[in-house]
Amino acid sequence: NAGVTQTPKFQVLKTGQSMTLQCAQDMNHEYMSWYRQDPGMGLRLIHYSVGAGITDQGEVPNGYNVSRSTTEDFPLRLLSAAPSQTSVYFCASSLVGGSGRKSTDTQYFGPGTRLTVL
Amino acid sequence: KQEVTQIPAALSVPEGENLVLNCSFTDSAIYNLQWFRQDPGKGLTSLLLIQSSQREQTSGRLNASLDKSSGRSTLYIAASQPGDSATYLCAVSEVITEGNTGKLIFGQGTTLQVKP
Fold it and tell me: Which of B31, B101, B109 sits opposite A58 (nearest CB)?
């Protein structure tokens, strides 16, 4: 298993440009999510998905779009990049566990994409 | 709102010491708690996951405990080695309900340096 893969590893954008960060997992996980990690702010959830065709917002969704057309892929789109979006982006996936009360099981993270917006 | 705090923020110890990293959370209604390791410039690696009904989990030289009622978890590292140098993050997960995302809520991390 490759686990969770992310591309690209590094990216530099100019303000106003758009791009897509790719995330894929081969573990048949229902739950996928995107976090950004910033110094002093820790990891914050951007968007998440509990299955193909289902997405929802996290705590910092503005400026980002996601879609989940397959179980394996969960791309993150930056619509019009801004310097405030300079960050390290992590994709994560997990099974959804439990019966009745459900939540995520062990979460597996990708290696990250380091994005700089000039 | 759930808040997760890790103390200390940084720790430097000589090789061979046993050490404890602390994590506290404000809302005991968690589903599970996970400890991660992050090396500089790298992603997060899951170390241990403790379900809310469990008291502890062990993996090799690592032991994590959970006291849900007091909102505390500790990560015990036995016989520390220079290769243990990294940032350790704890995170609690919410139950997936209407209004809750099932997301992980992270502490700020403890950066550990183990000196040879």
Answer: B101
